[in-house]
Amino acid sequence: MKEIKVLIPEEEINQRLDELAKQIMEDYKEKDIMFLCILKRSIFFTVELAKRIKNNVLFEFIEVSSYENNLRTDNLKLSKDVTQSIEGRDVIIIEDIIDSGKTISYLKDNLKNKNPRTIKVCSLLDKPSRRIVPIEADYVGFTIENKFVVGYGLDDNQNYRNLNYVGYIEM
Ligand code: IMP
Ligand code: MG
Fold this sequence. Notes:
By secondary structure, the chain is of the alpha/beta class. Helix content is about 20%, strand content about 35%. It has helices at about 10-30, 45-50, 100-110, and strands at about 5-10, 35-40, 55-65, 75-80, 90-100, 120-125, 140-145, 150, 165-170.
């Protein structure tokens, strides 16, 4: 196990999730919302956020991968697609972190072709200093500096996703 330092403790995440849920409920009023959870990294954030929302929330799970087995390339593909129609739905893509912005920009373009009524992005973390594609999330939990973070769904080579806090590994 590598040395992991705490960046955002669980209590702070919980507090921020309450605020995000409130903001989403205000924005969507009584409407149904469809959460698009990106496997595997967004499952923790998806569940914890959804539990705080009083609207009816529907779930879809998608997976993004790249032809070169490295998420930091331009060759992204949807390796697992939605299984129900998102047409006419108010969709929120739930992401772990926006880094270069390539994944979110790819996903938004791809999903727009399926004609949702609206499509927004909610990301637990944002690392704006690393952005290559100019894109912003509609909802952001925490803006962080350029650190390699793990926990709360985020992984280091598939490890440490189940940490109940966001930690970082010194590189
Ligand atoms: P993108 O560069 O915005 O396309 O981000 C792609 C994906 O890289 C994110 O959704 C994360 O799963 C992963 N990623 C980016 N930064 C980190 C990090 O600091 N720790 C763990 N995964 C990361
Ligand atoms: Mg990852």
